[in-house]
Design the sequence.
């Protein structure tokens, strides 16, 4: 089975959580990882990789309750008319997709009374939109909160690394289970 990870972190050298997750995938899987921080705009290669994949994992940190700009640019470039949508589009229809998301804030902050003003499910509608429009099959969304390693913001690096490891193992398990069903 071919698993493609679209890593939407803009700078893994400055990351604790997403860098640990990326390292876990590299060390424990045979998955193909496309790091969008070094994406060079090869649209045909990105589209071909999506077509070859049996399972696609979209990994990103929540930035202001959505995905980082590098992932938005990739979607804008790759999910083209005639490929991801349109009369001759839907080439990604029924592709299995797992969202893997890290969030620095607490789960409780995603509520009408919390810091983020709305439940995560409301934000989720926005970041899922392009993938739903491409008729992909979103089979799981794995979110880990409190992934803040910055002590100046109340974060804890050791706790973040532990959470990242647990997150990576949960994603790996979800993908392995999904592959077993295909």
Sequence:
């Amino acid at each position: 089975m071919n698993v493609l990870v679209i890593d939407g972190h803009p700078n893994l050298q400055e990351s604790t959580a997403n860098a640990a997750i990326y390292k876990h995938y590299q060390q424990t899987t045979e998955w193909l990882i496309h790091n969008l921080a070094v994406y060079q705009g090869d649209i045909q290669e990105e589209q071909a990789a999506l077509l070859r994949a049996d399972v696609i994992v979209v990994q990103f940190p929540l930035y202001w309750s959505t995905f980082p700009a590098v992932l938005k640019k990739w979607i804008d470039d790759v999910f083209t008319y005639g490929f991801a949508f349109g009369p001759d589009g839907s080439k990604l229809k029924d592709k299995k997709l797992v969202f893997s998301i890290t969030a620095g804030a607490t789960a409780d902050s995603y509520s009408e009374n919390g810091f983020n003003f709305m439940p995560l499910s409301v934000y989720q509608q926005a970041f899922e939109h392009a993938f739903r429009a491409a008729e992909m099959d979103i089979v799981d969304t794995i979110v880990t909160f409190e992934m803040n390693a910055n002590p100046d913001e109340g974060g804890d690096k050791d706790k973040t690394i532990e959470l990242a490891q647990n997150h990576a193992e949960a994603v790996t398990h979800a993908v392995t289970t999904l592959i077993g069903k295909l």
About this structure: The domain at 3-181 is CATH 3.40.50.360 (Rossmann fold).
